[in-house]
What we know:
The complex is a heterodimer of chains A (381) and B (345). With 381 residues, chain A is α+β, with helices and mostly antiparallel strands. In chain A, 47% of the residues lie in helices and 14% in strands. Chain B folds into 2 domains: 178 residues, Orthogonal Bundle (Butyryl-Coa Dehydrogenase, subunit A, domain 1), CATH 1.10.540; 139 residues, Butyryl-CoA Dehydrogenase, subunit A, domain 3. The interface between A and B is large, with 55 and 52 residues.
Amino acid sequence: xxxxQFTYCRIPDDAEKLREDVRSFLNDSLGDYxxxxxxxxxxxxxxxxxxxxxxxGWVGMSLPRExxxxxxxxxxxxxxxEELLAAGAPVSAHWFSDRQSGPQIMRYGTPLQKEFHLxxxxxxxxxxxxxxxxxxxxxxxxxxxxxxxxxxNRWILNGQKVWxxxxxxxxxxxxxxxSSDSDNRHGGMSQFIIDLTLPGxxxxxxxxxxxxxxxxxxxxDDVELSGDALIGEEGQGWEQVTAELAFERSGxxxxxxxxxxxxxxIAVVGENPDKLQxxxxxxxxxxxxxxRNMSLAVTAQLQEGRDPAWAASCVKDMGSVFEQxxxxxxxxxxxxxxxxxxxxxxxxxxxxxxxxxxxxxxxGGTREILRGIIARGLGLR
Amino acid sequence: MxxxxxxxxxKLLIDHVSPDRVLAAEESGWSRxxxxxxxxxxxxxxxxxxxxxxxxxxxxxLFGVMQLCGRYVLPLPLPEAILANxxxxxxxxxxxxxSLSFASANxxxxxxxxxxxxxxxxxxxxxxxxxxxxxEEDSPTIVVLDTxxxxxxxxxLNTAGEPxxxxxxxxxxxxxxxxxxxxxxxxxxxxxxxxxxxAQIAGALEALLxxxxxxxxxxxxxxxxxxxFQVVQHQxxxxxxxxxxxxxxxxxxxxxxxxxxxTLQIMAAKICCTESASIGASVAHGVHGAIxxxxxxxxxxxxxxxWSWRSEFGTATYWSDILGRSVCKAGxxxxxxxxxxxxxx
Lengths: 381, 345
């Protein structure tokens, strides 16, 4: 690592010129989409919207043209996704495929796996979920117990995943499981692409504290996987998943989750803020600009083919703190009380994001894990 | 050009700005031999146009220079002189050789060819030969004043012992005056001052991260380096995040500035650098323990400057208030477009 990975980089013109197109598409397709739905950020699921976006060429756009992508630069994808997030568009259906499963298949998949999965991903039709955490393995991901046993030219999978966002709606899961015994704590793991319609798989949604169902438990009971479900190399799962997590942590969704609340706050405060409102809104804006500039520096790393993991961890940790502070600050600035039902847009968004905020520092890695990665980069471990 | 300027300045700073030298400068107030060295190398003319004898460097090229001044805690107003000469150049005036500073606040009024009033909080005001200020009457005018003509001086030192002086002029004729160039705001020296302090803070924070990481890897307690303890690691991780935030925000401010300063990015940089300075100094002192609180240890050369620079040319509250008001005036629909344009309507 080096702090020089953080070097400001302006978005190149060819990427920037996509912005107007995306904005006018969002204006047309979202119209007066309500604030409370926009507050769902990248958790809103709408397959029809994902297909429309795919038709515009804005899903899987960094993938090669031969698979339906656009060979787009990291900056082009950045412009598209930040516009989607800022508008609070319902992108959850294709989000995981676009962000990590597609790139993971491109990087480690066989030609057959690429041909089978990438074109429908790019059309916004094929949805993935990410099988990492297990009941006893959260931050300590290397302690997972789910196991695929080799049986001739097939694999028999047993075990359980948990906190799997969209498992109840997705078509496939890319899961990290044990595939052999190893003395090395990080050895003996592999990644598999699992068709969630296979016999022996059951999915049970878990209600979150807001009463909504985004994440799930997934049970594998003697699930028979064909040989070509393995992605990448047998035994290389840990290295692969580490690369995947760098994608998972590198994007602007790690500091834009509460942007809907800044918008409703500005609307209710109006043109003449009092001293405290002006100061706090100014401070939030400064931090947002800076996080975005940091995120662009990470995007430049991705674009140059460098490992963004250290810098991405810095942005995600600082970004989560920011996203979580927005409801805390907003509730101090007006007398509008949070409302789970009824109330104005701001009251609803405030209630919703106040409750969502704890998830921001657990999805994609807890604070402790991220700070550990940063410290390792500083040469402390 | 950037690499040449940066590497020659860094060499000079390594050779001539040791912690001892900085401490000595705090005692004596002004290091003439060091200023002469900088002057001979022409660094103060870096941002003046070539047609007027300067190096014609853009702000994008000068982030590194300002950052180096912060990293080595240069006890001289080189950043101030570069900015002052830049402004003179933009207004069609020749750069000033010799020691130069500026102030962003004054209550000067003009009376014919002379000016009267107080020029406030001038960095190294008691030591420099000339200062640049903007007289804000009906049409803003830039003036260069000879400090020996000041009728009175109110001398102040900031937390780091750097002079921040008020000079009071009573009917004194400026050495030169010109109308402030078209398109420049009368606040330009306040905005520019915030920009250079942001880069200095970013540089000082990088030095802070370096010495703090080194210290926790060397200091042994409970049988191992304290950097092996998770609680220490996490504090340094937070410090690193803030160093990154300060660096990128200040860089963006410089990269987006030309003859027109990038006010929105500069406000964001000063607000974030200020916050990072406070948190950074706190973490660094926390992990250094008692040794970091001694005069002997060089940590305070950095932290006392962070505690000073963060409130100069507008505190975080000052800039947050201005930024927040502009955001609210523009309204929610313009919010995101301003972020991506980097400009507030």
